[in-house]
Amino acid sequence: MSTMHLDLGITQTINRATHVTRGFRRIVMVTAAGDGLPDRLVADLTDNFSRRGIEVTQLAFTGSEDTTPSTSAPAFIKWPRRRQEKARQNLDEGLDRQSAIIVTDSSRFDEVADLRVTGRLDRPVVVFLATDPDEVPDELPQLVDLVVTPNPETGPWEHLGVPVCSIGVPATAGSPAPGERPKRVALVGPCTDAQLSDALLTFDHACQVVPGWSLEVCLDDETRVRSAVAVRRDVGIHPADAESTVMNQSELALVLTRKEDLASRILDAAGAGLPAVAYADTPAAADLLSRCGYPATTTEELASSLSQGMADAPLRRIQRESAAEVLADHDGSTIGDAWLDLMFNVRRNRR
């Protein structure tokens, strides 16, 4: 092979890699300083960027004495203070125009400013990922370049003086099973004990109107032992890791999970071809439910929506077709491209 052909091959490889990453080599996620796992949107974006070869890390929490790594993904491990300080120093030195910082908790903007990124010509792109229209800051630090929200409406953040863009929640790849399915409702979690109790009550009320259905629940061993659902004939119990299989053998999904994960879990149901019954607690979730589900705002409405879905087979078929369209609109690769294109344009316009 001639040198010219070799150089051309290397150039093409570099160009392809640059297109996939848009030139970004590092993204730092700055999330809420809680003890729980990162919310599903952050986890899915982290996975999307990592698959492209971008290094994704989390800005360590300040002041933590915790010496035990988190049980979440490696990108979200919390280190003891001494390692935090070293990690922050290395991070500060490595941030440049090929980097981006995505902040989900506005209370941590001061920590981002401590990284000394403000005022540098080669500074990283800084994005505020805003999910809750009821918790909008009065203003943003100067270092923030733009706001991105998964909600369809950007109005609540328009007063902040930076561009605001709507980019939907990414969906995981769907593979709905073909053919007729038994009359089953899949409870999509994870759920707390209280949510499991609410699901059983909702299902009981719906079955008073439309009998003949079963509720399928995926539980870990500990929850299964202390739960009363095991003694019920109309409730199927499955291992926690069998959710995908259970959804593909059901007709409807009942989604009761924490607010920040709601839209992602509705999309999980859509990936199995299931219309979802859920609370429309966030604008993103309400938008999805308007297309491929049954929204509710109260406990009574939730039971009514579930019984409607159980009773109307033609509507369920229409909803399943709509679910496929929703999945296409929320394709994970397309969502990842939109994020990187947006950040790339911010970086390019600084020149």
In short:
This protein is of the alpha/beta class. Helix content is 41%, strand content 15%.
Order of helices and strands: HEHEHEHEEEEHEHEHEHEHEHHH
Helix share of residues?
A: 40-55%
Largest sheet: 6 strands, parallel
Number of helical stretches of at least 4 residues: 12
The count of strands amounts to 12
Oligomeric grouping of the chains: single chain
Question: C-alpha Rg, in Å?
Answer: 23 Å
Which structural class is indicated by helix and strand composition? alpha/beta
- The mean pLDDT is 82
Principal-axes geometry comes out as elongated
Main-sheet strand order equals 2-1-3-4-5-6
Q: How far apart are the termini? A: 39 Å
Please indicate the percent range of residues in DSSP E strands (runs of 2 or more): 15-25%
| Sequence stretches where pLDDT stays below 50 over 5 or more residues | 8-17, 63-79
